[in-house]
Structures are given as structure tokens and as C-alpha cells.
Amino acid sequence: MGGYLRRNVSLLVGIVLLGFLVLFMVVGAFVVDTSNAAPLSVPVLRPPSWDYPFGTDRTGRDLLAVMVAGTPLTLKIGFIAGFFGVGLGAVLAFTAAFYRGTADLVIRGIADIGLTVPGLLVLILIAVSLKGTLTVNEMAIVVASLAWLSPTRTIRAQVLTLRERGYVEIARLNGMSGPEIIFRELMPNLLPYLAATLVSSVSAAILATIGLEVLGLGPVDAPTLGMTLYWVTFNAAIINGWWWWWTAPMVVIVIVFLGLFFLTVGLDEIANPRLRRAA
Amino acid sequence: MSGTVLRVEELRVAYDHPRGAVRAVDEVSFSLRPRERFGLAGESGSGKSTMALAILRMIKPPGRIEGGEVWLEDLPLSGLSAEAMRRLRLAGIAMVPQGSMNSLNPVTRIRRQIEDALTDHASRLDKAATAARIRSLLGQVGLSADVADKYPHELSGGMKQRACIAIAISLRPKVIIADEPTSALDVVVQRQVMETLGRVQRELGAAVILIGHDMGLMAQFVDRLGIMYAGRLVEVAPIRDIVTAPRHPYTRLLIDSLPSLERKGTLRGIPGLAPLLRALPSGCAFHPRCPMAVERCRAEKPAVRAIEPDTSVACHLA
Amino acid sequence: MIPIVELREVSKSFGRKAALERFSFSIDPARPGITAVVGESGSGKTTLARLLLGLIEPTAGTVVYNNRDLRSLKAAERRGFRRDVQAIFQDPYEVYNPFYRVDHVLTTPVRRFRLARTKAAGRLLIEEALHGVGLRPEEILGRYPHQLSGGQRQRIMVARALLLRPRLIVADEPVSMVDASLRATILGSLQKLREELGISILYITHDLATAYQVADTILVLYRAAVAEAGDVELVVKDPRHPYTKLLIGSIPQVSTTRDWSAEETPALADAPPGGCTFADRCPVALKRCVTAIPPLYRVDARRAAACFRLDGAPAMTDAELASLLAHN
């Protein structure tokens, strides 16, 4: 395992970055008082100091507490949406690719149409038309509604190639039914690919979430990363020189995306043997 | 040295593997006379394709040429620069690689593919002369002139393979190496393509190395045959001798394993499995499967012994 | 006796290209034997195999199992069909799911067809089958496909067929991707299946030499139609159809007494419609050959060929073709 990680550098970097983040969240939860992530908890607009390592914002939030409390929220939305996207996408993809015919036509048609419509636009429309403010979970559902489109297409393409393999014919000769062949023969071979798709789907979902939140369409009361950036713009923190306010969330966001990106690249290498570096 | 158009001496090729280097070609020596047809036969993993690549110095990492020398007439190839070697390929030694008919560029017409070969070697022909040359080349391989304007997918397997032969002879090489040129072709087409190759070789005065595993094909085409096993050349002899009086037990078993069209019930195989190159048996690599093996075969690797000018064998008991 | 599986007037086209035309053929279980189907690429032999196995459906005509149309079989009957008719394919790598060890290919049929009551009994069955094809279970079980050689993998496939004890095995080019020295062993296993277990084998190949060695009767296909059929000794030693003669003459042999040459003219890309499919290449074609399709003429008791030059001999019906191939 260690030897493999040395060769698959991307995977290693991804794991390290995300591991660091997890550590930050877990240790932080013990060490930091997360109730200070709520407004009016601490003195306002203090730059980073020993008491407040990340500084405080205009509403009296301890930014370190915000990061510790908010990062898991953002990630949670991303994960829920990402998992849902790949879950639904996989089911649709297998159905379409294995059975072909009308099922394939319909599924492919809807996915293709959905993919041409700008996703963020649709999400904005959905978020705006929902009455009242969103909770974190509702946010996840909003993002998940579109997260299945791309995975459906890509997983379908993979299944189409596997479908013609000799072992699928042998499975047919064994009298296996369609769903059995999908689960026992095709799915295991796709696991690495599904894992890579999952990570990129989570990545896309987090991006969409942050995008919506920055526009103010997210769960307003939650201290998520995107919402923090919203407050940054709302209060013109950049012009006012309160650099610590936007630095903290930016750094965390960068770490999240770099970690997920390297993880995707690393998993891609496992999934696609042709990308493997020569031993 | 003069009198031979190609000479291979003690060629060794190894592949680097995390668990240790593996020798794919083990001290192979043979020579080729002008206009001679030499066959290199062996089963998968015997090292014959690696040999061909090594002669053309096309071994890529993790493979490398460990030692030995190849001479084209009087020119030793190891001393050539990369550029000089590149010019030698196709012009001096041409190769029709395995599956080459499927490696033709699918989006380029045949004419262009031959032109590419000519211009890559700084052919100084003008447009008209090039067109005439292409027509002549296609004619030599039995293809009509209109094939030049076709795409590979418009041609049958046999025609594609003949187009590859046309590319191989376009610069009048002295040696043509054909690696399994007909393995993907039907038996009737195979005969046509081999006839073409033979005729073209005679007209050009070139020597041919035919690499394959079909002993019947070898028997009908080559003058001399070399048998490879586990990277070594275990027997070389004129084809008539090999067929009527094989010296090496492997050769004997190989010939016996050919299905005959004359008597039923004579189908025989060679027991056991070909050894993995990274776990070769001690002594003679063939001894675990050899019906005549003695103690010495297990202990000592047999050296290649020249018996007559054209014949050699690597066996303690031959 | 009811044929195990039959093709009745089956045609199969892929787009505009006809792979088989009004083809009738049946396997009679009364006298199990090895029938070779020999043809080159484009002759329709692979299509024939896949139709018989129910992997593809005919464009016209019916594929019949136990006197019932394959398409109308119910689940239980279909399981019976899968039990009775099995296959060995050409590529010994593709047929293995790289995710599983090679055991999977043997344990799956044991489980699905309930060949054993307990896991231990199943294991015993598998070991016996492996012994039956000359493999040692301890060298094979627990390995992944890429750890074994092509020859070993193909032998495992034969062992799989052995487990199932089908009535018919369709072997589609089972040894063409295997080293020459191993072919005899694998083909020998197939012969053993016929001798010891009474299983009929359909040996589909382009290699006439191994077909001659292994089969009792032979069917020579050319461009989706039968050129010649009958006892393999007769067809190979004394071919009557010009295509068979061309085929046999083109096979390079080690023997110095055989001549590696055959008379022929180059083929056109597509056969001219309406006549004998071989007419454009035939060195002895008559005017008739271009305008009409020759029927199968019964040349003698044990063989038939579809060539107008044999006109005068009685024309054969499909039922007679079945009995001709039925290994008397």
C-alpha cells in the first residue's frame, strides 16, 4: 500500500489534504467553542490574535469557530448531493446501457437536455422560488436535483463497453437475469470508476453549494463557508480592509477543492489502468 | 563477414521488472545471406518478436539491449547515432509488424501513407515521379493503382497487409522482417499474401526474416528455420533438414504437434507449459517437458553448437 | 429422436449484410459426435454459433429447442436449455471477469444449476472437472485470470463445460488463440467429452487441419451458405466443391508431398446476387452458376456438395442433411 502511494502521488496528496481537513474539524470540535460561531458571541472585527486565531467578523462571530462548525456543514451538503447524484445516476445508467431500447432513449434524452441547460441558473431559480429560508438539508436536496445528470452519461458509457465482454455472454449462458448480471458481473468492475465519479460529483456539488450561498441563496443562519463569503461581500469586507474575514474561508475552500481534485486524479489512475505509470 | 547481409551475434535483451530483470532474448546468434528466407519460429513468450525489435533497435524501456551486436552487411548497428538508425529503418531494414494492417492510419488514404514513408527518408522525387513510384509499388504487391486513393477500411484484410508490404519495400531495403504477417488472415488470403511477399523479395533481391508460429507456413516458405524457446535459439537448420530430421527434442515435438491432413488420429501436443521467463528452470529451459532429459540437462545449460555452416543446435543430446 | 437444437429456415442479417440465408440445420442426440463447421471470416459460422446458443435472434425462421421456439420458452424451460446447450469461446481472456478469481467461472454454474448439495460436494465436483482436463486444482484455484496462461484458461473453460454435462457443446474457435503445442490437449479433452459422456460437439473453426483430426462430419460454409458437407474423411481427401478444393490447397503443410498451391481467381468484394456465392472466384464456373443458386446435391451416401457441376446427383432436403451429419 505504501509503495503504491509513493507511485500514485496524486492519491497521496489528496488523502493528506483531506485528512488534514478532517483532523481540523474533529480536533477543532473539541478544542474550540463552536457556540462562538453564532452572532454576538465575541467582540466584533478583531484581526487575528492569540485569543481569536482567525479573527472575528462584524456580527461578533469567532471565525475559527465558524470554520470548525461550518466546514462540516458545507461538506455534508456536498456529500449528500454527490452520493445522491451518483446513486441515481448509476441506477439510470445501468438500466439504460444494459437494456438499451426505449429505456435508453428516454434516459439519455432527459440527461442530454438537462445537461445543456446551465446548471447554476436552474439552481438559482429553484432556490429563489422556495418560500422562506433553506435549511442545510433542503440545500442538499436542491443541489442533488441536478447532480445525477452527468454521472448518468459517463457511467452509461462505461457500462456500454463492459456489456460486450465475453464474461457477460458466459453469464447469460449461465442463465443469469439482467439485474443479476449487472450486480454480480458489471458492478464490481466499475467500482473504481464509480468511486472516481463519486468524488468528482461531490466536488461539483460543493462548488454549486458555495456558488448558491455566495449569492445569498443558501441557509442564511448557518455558518457555512459559502455563507461566510456572502457576508464578506455584503459587508464590503475587502474594501474595508478586514482581510482575515475572507482569508479564512478561502483557505479552507482551496484545501477542500485541491484535496478532492487530487483524490479524483488518484482514483482515476486506479480506475483506468492505462493511466498507470509504468512500474 | 562479407557474404552475409545481416549478422546477429550474442544478442541479449532484458526487461526490467520490480522483482528482477527478465531476459527475453538470450545470446542469440544467426546470420542471413542475401536473398535468403529465414524463418524464426516459436510459441508465445519465446522472444521472437522481441528479437525483431532488437535488430531494429526499437526496444523501449523497461526493455533494454543488454549486449551483443547486429551488423547490416559490414556496418555494426550499435555504433550508429539515433538519427542514423532512424534513416536505416525502412531504407536498410524494413519491418512489417504484427497486426500492421490494423495500424494503418484510418483517416489517411493509402497514397499518403506511402508518401509519408518516402518523404520521411528525404526522397527527392517530384510529384509525378512519386505518383509513378506508388503505382509501381502497388503493382508489385498485386494491388491495382486505384487502391492508392482508398482508405484502409475500404480494403480487405489481405489487401491491407499487401499495402503494408508495399510500404515496407518502398525504399528497397536489404532485409525485410515480417512478424506474423498473416496470422489474422484467412488461409486462402494467407497464401496470396505470402506469394506476394515471396515474389517481391525475389524481385528486390532482399533477404526476409519471417517470424511466426505456424510450422506449416515456415515449411512452405523459408529456406532456413530457427526455433526459439524461452529466449534462446535452440536449433537452426535448412528447412528440409528440420522437417525430416529435427535435432532438438522441442523441434521434434513441435513438428509432431502439427495436425496432418493425411491421417486422422495423429494429433499430439507437448505436455507441460512454456516456462515463465522470470522463473526459468535450471540448466536447459526445456528439460521439464523434454521426453529425453537426463541429469545433465537439469544441471547445465546447453551451449549453442555449430554443426555445419548453416546448422546449429543447443542440446546436450543432439 | 427430437433434435437437441435446430435451425429451421433461419436467416440472419446485420443491416444489409446477410450472415446466414435460409439455413436449416439440426443436432441429433441419438448418435453423439463431433461435427466441424469450417469457414473463413464472413462465412457465417460465428453467427451460426450465436444463434444456436440463443445469444442472438434470427431475422427470419426459428431456432428450436426440444421442438419449442427459443423465443417462447418459459423460465424453467430456458434453464433446461441452458443446461443442455453450452459453449466454449475463442478468447480465453475475455470470458473471465477480471474482478473475480478463476474459481468464479466454475462455482457460478455449480450454484446456479444446483449441481451439488453442499459446498464441499461442489468443490469436489470442480476438482474432478479440473482433473478431467489435465489441470491440477492446487495450481488453478485461487488464482486470478491474468496469473494463468491462455492454455490453462481455455482448459478451465472446458472443465466448466464438463461440470454441466450438457448434451451439446458449441465450441467457437476454441484453440485459435492458444499455442500450437497445447491445441492437441484441449481438442483431446473435447474428444474425451464425446467418448466418455456422450456429449455432441459442434467444433467451429477456420482451421481445416484440426477439424479433420477431431471431427467425424464436417460442414463447409462459404458466404452464408453450405458449400459441402459430410463425412470428414471424404470431404478432405476427395473434395467436390471448388471452394473446398481451394481451401484445402491453401493450407501450408510440413509434408513435402503436398503442393501449396491452388487454382483461383481473385474475389469480388460482394458476391453477385442471384447466383452461386462462389461464382466470381470459381475456376470452373458455368454460365448457370451466375444466375441460379445450386442446391445441395447428394454425391454419395455420406456426402453432399452445392455445385452445379454435380448436377445429375439427387438434390437433398434439409432433413437428409441432418441425417447425413448424424454420424452413422
Descriptive overview:
The complex is a heterotrimer of chains A (279), B (318) and C (328). Chain A is an all-alpha fold. Chain A has helices at residues 2-7, 9-31, 63-99, 101-116, 119-129, 136-147, 149-163, 166-173, 178-214, 225-234, 243-271. The longest helix of chain A is centred in the first third of the chain and has 37 residues, at 63-99. Chain B is of the alpha/beta class and 318 residues long. Chain B has a domain at 244-318. Chain B is 31% helix and 23% strand. In chain B, strand 9 (224-229) and strand 10 (232-238) form a beta hairpin. The model of chain B has no long low-confidence stretch (mean pLDDT 88). Chain C folds into two domains: 5-215, Rossmann fold; 233-328, no CATH class. An eight-stranded mixed sheet of chain C has the order 6-7-8-3-9-10-12-11, with helices on both faces. A four-stranded antiparallel sheet of chain C has the order 2-1-4-5. In chain C, helix 4 (119-132) crosses helix 6 and helix 6 (150-164) runs parallel beside helix 7. In chain C, 34% of the residues lie in helices and 21% in strands. By secondary structure, chain C is α/β, with parallel strands linked by helices. Chain C has helices spanning 45-52, 75-84, 103-112, 119-132, 137-140, 150-164, 180-197, 208-214, 232-237, 242-249, 287-291, 318-324; strands at 5-14, 17-27, 34-38, 60-65, 68-69, 85-88, 168-172, 200-205, 217-222, 225-231, 297-300, 303-305. Classes of the chains: A mainly alpha (279), B alpha/beta (318), C alpha/beta (328). Chains in contact: A-B, A-C, B-C. Chain B binds chain C through residues 43-44, 156-157, 186-188, 190-191, 194, 213-217, 219-221, 240, 243-244, 253-255, 257-262, 264-271, 273-274, and chain C through 40-41, 149-152, 179-185, 187-188, 206-210, 212-214, 232-233, 236, 246-248, 250-256, 258, 260-262, 264, 269.
